[in-house]
């Protein structure tokens, strides 16, 4: 299994840090916190940090100093959180090599997506994202992220079932195919339980891409891209 990426939260307001840490942990990242700049010195000196989030609980000057000392080639990527209208601070941070600067109040889900983009560019394993009509699925973390902002967790059996459909687009899978390749999480894997599993998976994904082929089985029809 690939090593988990390490995200450092430095002087991020506690009300935000808790939600962000929980969000990142569910997506397979390790999160470490430093509540004071001097704590960040020890944390960043370890050399195993991938992305650093500098919160607006620290002065912009202190944030830029951490960026100057620990950023650059071979160092972690930095994202600085700044207060609205601090244009000069934004420009200075970017000129010093910050990967991104975002304004507070921030959206946790958007910040997590930005972190994922940075990790992908660093060559770290990112999420395996599947885009459906009304939700995006991160297979690596087994999370369903609905357009409404709500989230659902897939069970191991549901992940196996979804992967089976993804591996066989537009192909009719019989109940025997499903039982063999994606067995249920308990011993009750007879015909009718397959129907129930499909219904629950459709409901959790809020999708109509898994089609019932009467008398034959089920077929996954990938959604058409909006750009097509």
Structure commentary:
The protein is α/β, with parallel strands linked by helices. The chain folds into two domains: 116 residues, 3-Layer(aba) Sandwich (Rossmann fold); 92 residues, Arc Repressor Mutant, subunit A. It has eight helices and twelve strands. It has a five-stranded parallel beta sheet with strand order 2-1-3-4-5, with helices on both faces. Strands 6-7-8-9 form a four-stranded antiparallel beta sheet, with no helix packed on it. A hairpin with a 3-residue loop joins strand 6 and strand 7. Helix 1 crosses helix 5 and helix 2 runs parallel beside helix 3. The longest helix has 15 residues. It starts with 5 loop residues before the first strand and ends in an 8-residue tail after the last strand. About 2% of the residues have low confidence.
Structural domain tally: 2
Order of strands across the biggest sheet?
A: 2-1-3-4-5
CATH superfamily of the largest domain: Response regulator
- Shape label: elongated
CATH class category name of the largest domain: Alpha Beta
The major beta sheet can be summarized as: 5 strands, parallel
* End-to-end C-alpha gap: 36 Å
What is the β-strand count? Answer: 12
Q: Do you know the CATH topology of the largest domain? A: Rossmann fold
Mean pLDDT: 83
Helix vs. strand class: alpha/beta
Order of helices and strands: EHEHEHEHEHEEEEHEHHEE
